[in-house]
Amino acid sequence: MKKLFYPALFHKAEEGGFWVSFPDIPECLTQGDDMTQAYEMAVDALGLALTCREKEQPPFPDSSDPTNITPEPDSFLVVIEFDMLAYKKRTGSRAVKKTLSIPEWLNGAAMAMDLNFSQILQEALLAKIQA
Q1: What is the SS3 assignment for 72?
Q2: If 0-12 CB within 10 Å is exposed, 13-18 middle and 19+ buried, where does residue 11 land?
Q3: pLDDT-based confidence at residue 19 (cuts at 50, 70, 90)
Q4: Measured in whole angstroms, how far is the alpha carbon of residue 22 from the centre of its chain?
Q5: According to the model, what pLDDT value does residue 112 have?
Q6: pLDDT, tens digit, for every residue of 43-89?
Q7: What distance lies between CA 127 and its chain's CA centroid?
Q8: Beta carbons of 75 and 13 less than 8 angstroms apart
Q9: Which residues neighbour 79 within 8 Å (Cβ) at sequence distance 6 or greater?
Q10: How far apart are CA 31 and CA 34, in angstroms?
Q11: pTM for the whole thing?
């Protein structure tokens, strides 16, 4: 999956730090004590919002043209880069049991070498996905 880019508005919070909103995803809000934390929280909040929308059609809202967004006073525009595959790798570590079929001779040879089927399958799938 390609990277996604969404404009975010960083608003100065009265108590310090920033709160962040996304014009294209109104339910997506977050905050941070400083610019770095606010950006990191914005990436995570965007990931959660997009993951929740993933099964919808279309799955993700179109991203607004940042030049068409006028920030309010005490706020500024930041484009957030989001990589769904990296987000899922970081947050989706729950194991899923799968059943597979392979030739008997291959199973015997792999067992004789004490190979870890799960690890090899994960490595092969990751290589295929990233290709």
Answers
A1: coil
A2: buried
A3: very high
A4: 15
A5: 94
A6: 999 999 998 888 777 778 889 999 999 999 999 999 999 988 888 88
A7: 19
A8: no
A9: 5, 6, 7, 8, 66
A10: 9
A11: 0.68
Asked whether the beta carbons of 24 and 48 are under 8 A apart, the reply is no
Tell me the residue type at 8: A
Q: Please report, in angstroms and rounded to a whole number, the separation of the first and last CA atoms in the chain.
A: 11
Tokens for 40? 């990191």
Helix (H, G, I), strand (E, B) or coil at 113: coil
Residues 90 and 108: their CA atoms lie apart, in Å, by 34
| Residue whose C-alpha is closest to residue 79's, from 89, 67, 97 | 67
β-pairing verdict for 4-12 and 18-21: antiparallel
Tokens, residue 28: 């997506």
* CA distances for 93 relative to 5, 13, 87, angstroms: 24, 34, 11
- Both tokens of 63, joined, read 């991203």
